[in-house]
Amino acid sequence: MRIDIITVLPELLKSPFEASILKRAIEKGLVEIYFHNLRDYVTDNYKQVDDYQYGGGAGMVMMIEPIDKCITKLKSERSYDEVIYMTPDGETLKQKTANFLSLKENLIILCGHYKGVDQRVRDHFVTKEISIGDYVLSGGELGAAVLCDTIIRLIPGVLGNESSALTDSFQDDLLAPPIYTRPAEYKGWKVPDILLSGNFPKIEIWREEEAYKRTKERRPDLLDE
Ligand code: ADE
């Protein structure tokens, strides 16, 4: 998979890709990440990427021309499955979206900044708009990092234990069950006996029941879906 990220602040985005699972995925060649600084697509001396809103109002708007130049250049080099715009008024990111996107070859992610992008960018270039939650970030960069993390960890070979992404919370619209590791008893607090029993079919049933209980308590809305 290849992901091209368009931003005015590439430095804000780099560190999540320089550690742990994402770093290893890149090193193994399972994903390629490219950052494109929008200012490199501006011809004027001031490197202006934003301007005042037509009709008045507070806040600057990202201009269409540098975005058009950047996306058009990328599209001239390969085809893209989606051009994603990170915005608080997009569809809320869910595990299903991550599953869907993890099967794609080439993605462009456009990070909004200031008030966001000129509507014509959304009308003519963007194919999918994603929000990471009902709150407003200073820009789309942190959202793009979250989105990339959710997608990349699902690519086969990225996680050491292939089955582990499948047992994450949300994969079956259920939260994950409680988990424990050694010691079996700590300060009198015991690991449930069933997990030490070696009876794996029973352990599986216990986990499913716990996952259901936890989901019913904390996120009953998931069960409605
Ligand atoms: N940009 C600003 N807020 C955002 C959010 N909640 N999700 C994605 N991009 C954003």
Protein model, in words:
There is one protein chain. The chain has helices at 11-14, 20-27, 64-77, 95-101, 119-124, 141-152, 193-196, 200-218, 220-224, and strands at 2-7, 32-37, 50-52, 60-62, 82-92, 106-111, 128-131, 185-186, 189-190. It folds into two domains: 2-152, Alpha/beta knot, CATH 3.40.1280.10; 169-224, Trp Operon Repressor, Chain A (Orthogonal Bundle). Helix content is 35%, strand content 19%. The protein contains nine helices and nine strands. Strand 8 and strand 9 form a beta hairpin. The strands form three sheets. The protein has a five-stranded parallel beta sheet. It has a two-stranded antiparallel ribbon with strand order 3-4. Strands 8-9 form a two-stranded antiparallel sheet. With 225 residues, it is α/β, with parallel strands linked by helices. It binds adenine.
